[in-house]
Amino acid sequence: MLNIMKKLSLLLLSMMSVFFLSAQTPGTLDLSFGNNGITLTDIGGVGNGCHSSAVQADGKIVLGGYAYDGSSDNFSFIRYLPNGTLDNTFGSGGIMTVVFGGSGDELRDIAIQADGKIVAVGYTDSGGSSSKMVLMRLNTDGSLDNTFSIDGTVIIEFGSGTDSYGMSLDLQEDGKIVAAGYLYDMTDDIQSALCRLNPDGTLDNSFGSNGIIVYDILSKDNFINNVVLQDEKIIIGGLSYIDGQNVFVTLTRFHADGLLDMSFGVSGNVEILLPIDTWILSPQGGMCLDGEGRIIYGCYIDGIAGEHFAVLRFQQENGYPDNSFGDFGMTVTPIEGNTRVNAVVAQYDEKIIAGGYQWIDDHGDFTMVRYLEDGTPDITFGTEGTGVVITSASSGGTYPDNRIYSLNMQADGKIVAAGTGHSEAGSVDFAVARYHSGLNVSIESQDAIEDNLFIYPNPIIDQADIRFSLAHPDRVEIEILNASGMRVHLYPGLNYTEGEHQLRLNCEELPAGMYVAKLTIGDKTYSSKIIKSH
User: pTM (2 decimals)?
Assistant: First the structure.
């Protein structure tokens, strides 16, 4: 009788799940978050800007950018609870502002360490007329971490007479911090700038020249605004120019010691010419890796009717364009008005989301496009059958300007888009929205999936057992993905007989945080969220 009741309960749960999922169309706002899926936060002024976001292991969301206090821009952080309300345990009422004293200080990127501390990079012009790359680290409560340098902040000196701008960072598994951006030298040439810091904030002398690399990529002006770690190698990416014309997507890969990786592209560099006619002396675009380690870069191109979303994919091994994606490695999506990509993220199922904005009729809106693995738009994303989702994040303003600058995937598969929006008072605010993706990633009801996938214990300390059942002999592969969708461990595919099987997962070397266990049985995939506690 108990077995019958259990089967009946599972049937009812399955029916409810089908109904629930059908109501959560991929690309629609998660109405349980903020105000009908969107949260706007004004930091006491008319000029706020969010450039980056990150999702903590506990589901809290951190935004980073700048806020204008009436005389200058300051580094600013906001942390939200998983439901989109401000987290009062962080800073002052969920907001933390760091004042350097410069007039144009901006935070450009953030990342969360395994211990929950927040690392940020940006630039400041305090102490003089030139700008300097700056890094800082916050404790989990938002206070500056004085174990990082002396006061929680580090200014990087790339040389006398230079202006340097920190644009992006990534964290190594050993706790070292890699930051990248660009600099103007004394002749106004624009070069890539890269540094690596030890966990205590000192420069890592085993990298480049005393922890620093200044590199002139192919004798062009290089606006580097992205850095990602690919295994133990470092990839920087951005747009480069020749005399403001002939715009290129440019990638460079370095070994762990800072030497150029000559197996990547041509002598360590890859460049793709873009059809862009205008002079754009500023960094543009976003970059990430997918679960296979392939490089995704999002930007825009000029079309007949305006600027269009453009996404490129490059091979993991050598950086060459991946010709299985779009047309010769690039896919272009025309959308009414002018549109640009500022951020990209790869889902656990290898679909790609590009986020940015659409500008039309004197206003801008959050804009996302989801692509299948071959680069075609995913028509199941959104409600229009085009793969395009456009959202107004504003609650008012005469000329609302809403732009996505950062994308993240939560461990439960939901999409977090962060950037700027307008309030009713007309101020530019930090804006964050959460969307459904359609990914079925959950550990909330193990009974509902235990016939396919069960992991115990969860949360995990060092090891866990994974159990699955096969109705007939089949090939099984297990992947562990981090919160960004990157594969961090692979258990190669093996053939298993019919019946129940149990395997031991060794997670001892994984940093604390949220992960997804992805089980592929034949042509079917089962996913479960797992938590590494420490």
Answer: 0.82
